[in-house]
Amino acid sequence: MKPKTRAMIFNFLGFAILFLLIRFALGQIFDIGRFYLALAAAFTASILAPKFGVVKMNEDEKVLMKWIFIKGFREV
């Protein structure tokens, strides 16, 4: 699998898992409309989700991760 494809899949999975967890947690806590609930969950998940990207190093492409809870970049 190409590194760009892996990075895109990791970005999607990170966002999707956080979105679902936040969506159901907010749904249990607050009694608001479904649209606003999904909007709040999407906004929060996009901020909290780890970001993956591809960097070319020495003729080799590596997938790196940046997250607000971790200092710096990590190789995946």
Could you walk me through the main structural features you see in this protein, from its secondary elements to its overall organization?
The chain is of the alpha+beta class and 76 residues long. The protein has one domain (3-75). Helices cover 55% and strands 22% of the residues. It contains two helices and three strands. It has helices spanning 3-29, 34-48, and strands spanning 51-57, 60-66, 73-75. A three-stranded antiparallel β-sheet has the order 1-2-3, with helices on one face. It is elongated, with a radius of gyration of 15 Å. It starts with a helix and ends with a strand. The model has no long low-confidence stretch (mean pLDDT 94).
Q: Mind sketching the topology for me?
A:
Layout lengths: L2 H27 L4 H15 L2 E7 L2 E7 L6 E3 L1
Antiparallel strand pairs: 1-2, 2-3
Helix pairs in contact: 1-2
Q: What portion of residues belong to β-strands? A: 15-25%
* Continuous helix count: 2
Mean pLDDT: 94
- Summed up, the domain count is 1
Low-pLDDT windows of residues: none
Range of helix content: 55-70%
Structural class: alpha+beta
Give the N-to-C terminal Cα separation.
Answer: 14 Å
- Radius of gyration of CA atoms, rounded to a whole number: 15 Å
Q: Based on Cα principal axes, name the global outline.
A: elongated
Secondary-structure element series:
HHEEE
- Main sheet summary: 3 strands, antiparallel
Question: Can you list the strand order of the major beta sheet?
Answer: 1-2-3
